[in-house]
Structure formats: structure tokens, C-alpha cells
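Lecture notes, unit on protein representations.

Consider one protein chain, 202 amino acids long.
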Amino acid sequence: MAEAYLASLAARAARGKPVSHVASVASFFVSHIDALVDPLLEKVIAQGGDKAAMANSMRGDVAFASAKMACQIYKEIFCSDRFKELAAHGARAQRVLWAGTNTKNPGKSVVKYVGALIGPDTVNTAPLETLDAYRDHGDPNARLEQDVEEARLVLERLPKLGISLGHVTQQLEDEGVEKFNKPWTNYCRPWRALRCAGEKRP
């Protein structure tokens, strides 16, 4: 998404069009990662052995690690010379949008993902009940860029356990596209029918 955003800004700038009013977010679905990875870790734990201890230490942390590393990639992209040239024309950095920050595991804190992902130039789409809970007992502090090296190690350990984060994220992407395609198709269907009947959309 960052690449598409930069390419679009560059194309506008090349045509002499303004870029200062263009804004964008890159959505990152957080808890969905743990929802897929944790069951895989639990299978490794059930097998016992040295890998079981490693897997147990990583339960509930892969989504955090992925988000923290995504933030580091984001910083590299928008601190690059390529973006600085666009920023000279007034371009804004794309912001990371944390989605799926409601906790899927009933045994975990409802504010688990909100508190860990506080950082500059980010957006959090926390559900109202999660936001209310955070107001009640959250601990506001910028934590997004803490423990980055530990996050890197968590992701490096996954292949050693036979878990491919690439496969997990591809599954989430496919499911996400399908999830948004259905309501969009349902929304567009009646307007297509109107066009076929020669009527105009209001």
C-alpha cells in the first residue's frame, strides 16, 4: 500500500498537480494474526519438546511483533530520499491504521492491542467498548517502538516452528478482500440493475 501511495503521489507531482491535500492510511489488521497463529503454536506446544517452550513464549505476541516491524518498515519508507522529494512538494506521509484491535481471546485483556500500539502518525479503529475499557483502566504511553529487537526475534523464530507468517498474512489478505467484496457487490447490484433498465443513479 505504501508503494501504491508513493507511486500515485509521484505521478501527480510529475503532472504538476498538487499533492499537499492527498492523505492515506495503510490498514493493518492486528488481532486476526494471533487468531490464526496461536492455534498453530498450540499444536507445537502439544507435541512437547524444546520447540514447545519456544512456542509457548510466543503465544499472543506475534501480532505485536508484526505490527512493530511493520512500523519500522513504514519509517524507512517515509524517511527515504524518495519521499523527501515528494514532501518538498507538500506530500504527507501515509499513516498506519491499526484495525482489528478488539481482543479475540476471551482470556486476554480487552485493551491488549490498544495499549501496545500507541505511537505517532498512527490511527486506531478500536471498537467503542474497547475504547471505553481503555478509558477506564488503560495506561497511555507510547509503546509502539519499544522492544523492537525482541519483536524481530519473535518473527525469526516462527519458521523454526514450521509456521510461515507469509502464508498467514496471505490468508488474511484473501479473507479480507472477500469480506469487503461481498458488501460492495451487494451495494452495487441494485445500481447495475437500474443502469440496465436505463435509469440513472440518484
